[in-house]
């Protein structure tokens, strides 16, 4: 993991298209702004993990449903 220090209003550039900027620092909370192309999904980590879990659950249900439907046709 690359660890960088930034101060208020400083940025980090990721590739050509993504900029992460420190917007404010209040106590132990840091607000960041992210500029990125619209086709790039940006989520908080806990939201991303929840989405992945839900997708895995849905995919599993789909496989089970397809198996059930397939066995009913036979």
What does this structure look like?
The protein has 74 residues and is α+β, with helices and mostly antiparallel strands. The protein folds into 2 domains: 1-40, no CATH class; 43-74. Helix content is 39%, strand content 27%. The chain is built from 1 helix and 3 strands. The protein has one helix at residues 45-73, and strands at 11-14, 18-26, 29-35. A 3-stranded antiparallel sheet has the order 1-2-3, with no helix packed on it. Strand 1 and strand 2 (18-26) form a beta hairpin. The relative contact order is 0.10. It comes from Bacillus pumilus (strain SAFR-032). Homodimer; the beta-strands of each monomer intercalate to form a hydrophobic core, while the alpha-helices form wings that extend away from the core. This is Translational regulator CsrA. It is found in: Cytoplasm. GO terms for molecular function: mRNA 5'-UTR binding.
Strand content: 25-35%
User: What structural class do the secondary elements suggest?
Assistant: alpha+beta
How would the global form be characterised?
A: elongated
The structural domain count equals 2
Largest sheet: 3 strands, antiparallel
Q: State the distance separating the first and last CA atoms.
A: 52 Å
Rg over alpha carbons: 21 Å
How confident overall, as mean pLDDT?
Answer: 90
Side by side, the strands of the main sheet go 1-2-3
- Enumerate the spans where pLDDT stays under 50 for 5 or more consecutive residues: none
The number of E-state strands comes to 3
What series of H and E elements makes up the topology?
EEEH
> How many helical elements?
1
Give the helix level as a range of percent.
25-40%
Subunit structure: Homodimer; the beta-strands of each monomer intercalate to form a hydrophobic core, while the alpha-helices form wings that extend away from the core.
Pfam families: CsrA
Protein name: Translational regulator CsrA
Organism: Bacillus pumilus (strain SAFR-032)
